[in-house]
Amino acid sequence: MSTQPEFPMESPLLSDQSRGIRTKARPVASWREHHGWSAAASLRRLMSRPVGTLLTVAVMAIALALPLTFYLLLGNVQKMGEALGQNQTVSVFLQPGQSGSSADLMAKKLRDRADVASVKVKTPDQGMDELAKMQGFSGALHTLDANPLPFVLEVLPRTDVNADGVDRLVADMRGLQGVDQVQDSGTWRQRLEALLGVGERAVLILAGLLAVAVLLVVGNTVRVDIASRSEEIGVLMLVGASRAFVRRPYLYAGIWYGLFAGVLAAGFAVLVELALAEPVAKLGQAYAGKLQIDVLPPWLLASVPVAAAFLGWLGARLVSAWQLRKAA
């Protein structure tokens, strides 16, 4: 056992208790003074063993950075799906013989719907021009006596409409008079949304499991510290120190562990963003700037150290209370 106590015996409050001096006249001041001493003493203790502290903090930081990284990747997969066609245009083919005025009237009705972002009318001549540009079609088109293509309405659903909403829109358009066929890639869209739903649930489960891992790491570290200084703790309690008094420095140690790990985890997440910046920029250029990749919001990065400090406190609180009950 080390000859140097983890938290020195010359605590201001302990000195008063060991001399039988009651601090009833200044309970709040004494409580605040001991909190300050506990925070400083626990920090000095962590700094006195930099290698062990760094290893513990690094393990916790990696555990915290993993759900942040998966959250970043999942959000960008969702953005990529939107850019590459999650809300693809639904093509409405009118029956042959429908006039341009009928197509314009139907387009106006569809634009008035709350679930429709835009409607574009494609004439038979425009469709013929597109076919003419395709390799192998230009010669065959010259043999046609008339243009057989119908008017086509390209309907773009709103971005906030989910797959079920798009399905209802497609069903309504199929029931319109004068509509011959509605072409929609709804199956692909539903699969993508289902995959994203599974990913979101997996990130939540992973975050919960890794939060428990952080609790266990801090709890085990505090348990070892308390067990190695059981005799010193026994002396403290013999001279009148309460359990809250004894465990307070260990609670601050848990807070420091969590705070440092949270800051390091946020740094890891930022490094992942920087590592992805260049390939993502090239990918966006390949899609003519349509692909915009998100980064983690600042509020989320700022909340990680706070949440990690709470987890560190909670782990230290649970283990120290259990250990002190055993020592009593």
3D architecture notes:
- This protein folds into 2 domains: 12-83 and 192-327, no CATH class; 89-184, Alpha-Beta Plaits (2-Layer Sandwich), CATH 3.30.70.3040.
- 70% of the residues lie in helices and 7% in strands.
- It has helices at 12-18, 27-48, 50-84, 100-111, 124-133, 138-141, 163-174, 186-228, 230-238, 243-286, 298-327, and strands at 90-94, 116-122, 152-157, 179-183.
- It has a 4-stranded antiparallel sheet with strand order 2-3-1-4.
- The chain is elongated and about 105 Å long.
Write the layout of secondary structure elements.
Layout: H1 12-18, H2 27-48, H3 50-84, E1 90-94, H4 100-111, E2 116-122, H5 124-133, H6 138-141, E3 152-157, H7 163-174, E4 179-183, H8 186-228, H9 230-238, H10 243-286, H11 298-327
Helix pairs in contact: 2-10, 3-8, 3-10, 7-8, 8-10, 8-11, 10-11
